[in-house]
């Protein structure tokens, strides 16, 4: 929705991900249908992208193509990626920094995207460190989990900031008016865990989001949906996300074996299929594609590198929600209230 | 198997857990059948236990009853539990410390069991801190995960010791001759994570278990079964275990909804039922009941407080495996080799 602000809703890295640019362009074809007013700045190698873009009618109408000669590979170190000024990822990020686009979506190298975004788009002045967030399925609806690995070591202040950012995220992307927040710990009692989580909990209880803060939650609360937002450090969050995904994958694989193990089991599958298909659709990892680097002066969404058109379109949906609902303004507002209300965040040397 | 050693294979806390002593006694009735040579020292309030024991023929033959007037409740703080000398848990642990029993099984308060065991049975002299370990399901068989919460903060040395203990555990309980070991991290590349995991990895590579050390693994590797043993700190391990359990529970609940959502789905369930039942049996949390506090001068197994007879019998199986296969001797041997082989403190991170 190009208002009086940036000319483009989003800059799109056409060359990121395993099946780029084809999967990206197919994703944009879907996204252009879902967001008819959106304008995309598509960045990539013109020779490789222009023809493919012309073949997608809706995407072609919604996109302006900008040439970028280079490409950041999946195994490139962030320090190396920073030196390549002509990469599609870099040129797309530059467009956000220059105010041409409100946000960027890339399915490329995660480490490179985080490093480039931090250096080029820059962290909000109110924020110590950005965090990586994502949405996952739970028994009671979608749940926001952060940090997922942007910060392997965090102090109490970082955790408090993640809670404020998670709150803004749940409002903007899940559309919740009063998202509840939990802090991940090894038990729900107040005395559990280390000083870091206990300090963070104390600060959050006294803050402007204190009434929605539900204290400590445990690993099983993520899929139980005990709270709408679950806050943790990047090491634990990364492990929790991948462990949960792994457990669901194990179940899917075992169910596939069950339903092909005998003729009656196959028939049983066919009978239960409509309901099983609805379940599969609801749990579809593509529906949860799009990890968001929050705390920057722009919207930055990382699509899974191995996803297809549907997954990429969903990552674009997430970015559009954030752009449309003034996500960064909400974060800023939350942080301002945090610094004017309640006691100070305990200062801890890093 | 009462050899020339302790008179009792295991001391059993009759009063621990939600359904004690009934579930414990039913579990012992099963265990006595599975381990006909085992002798159990059953500890609990005589007035409550004696009659119930007499009604279980096999258990009655395998058990000697010892009176303990008190009981540690589920919500009692460890410091309070330490002061009660006459609790069933304490008297059972005392029997291990006195050399009367080779190990103890309790379904009672986890924090109290850990605190009492550490103080009464004591940590092995070679070990800095004991760890809590458990077995879980994976696509390639059972996998050992530790630490699960005994130590919320760990250094590199603790992680290395956990690896040695996990190696011994996998040999004794899973019967593996060359268990592979992975160190949980946010990525599999050597440079990922913090100093702590990188130092631990370096030490492990140069140690006597270096040839079985597969380096860093990620959350999804737990259920993928990438390695037989997965080592992490107690905070991350606790969250990972509960997140994985939560994800599996979500899937079970959703499948129940699927199979009751329509008449054809119900029929489908009936047709696929034998295969689904096998899957359910294989994934049954009771089959994985029994977390083990390892690194002490005796075998200490914590059964889930809410489990039934089958679950408690499985916790007894785990303890019997450890007693029978000289688990603690294996750990001692491993630690001795660790201190005589490779460097203990890494010189510099790579």
TrEMBL record, chains A, B:
<protein>
    <recommendedName>
        <fullName>Phosphate acyltransferase</fullName>
        <ecNumber>2.3.1.274</ecNumber>
    </recommendedName>
</protein>
<dbReference type="InterPro" id="IPR003664">
    <property type="entry name" value="FA_synthesis"/>
</dbReference>
<comment type="function">
    <text>Catalyzes the reversible formation of acyl-phosphate (acyl-PO(4)) from acyl-[acyl-carrier-protein] (acyl-ACP). This enzyme utilizes acyl-ACP as fatty acyl donor, but not acyl-CoA.</text>
</comment>
<keyword id="KW-0444">Lipid biosynthesis</keyword>
<keyword id="KW-0808">Transferase</keyword>
<comment type="subunit">
    <text>Homodimer. Probably interacts with PlsY.</text>
</comment>
<keyword id="KW-0443">Lipid metabolism</keyword>
<keyword id="KW-0594">Phospholipid biosynthesis</keyword>
<dbReference type="Pfam" id="PF02504">
    <property type="entry name" value="FA_synthesis"/>
</dbReference>
<keyword id="KW-0963">Cytoplasm</keyword>
<dbReference type="GO" id="GO:0016746">
    <property type="term" value="F:acyltransferase activity"/>
</dbReference>
<keyword id="KW-1208">Phospholipid metabolism</keyword>
<comment type="similarity">
    <text>Belongs to the PlsX family.</text>
</comment>
<dbReference type="InterPro" id="IPR012281">
    <property type="entry name" value="Phospholipid_synth_PlsX-like"/>
</dbReference>
<comment type="pathway">
    <text>Lipid metabolism; phospholipid metabolism.</text>
</comment>
<keyword id="KW-0012">Acyltransferase</keyword>
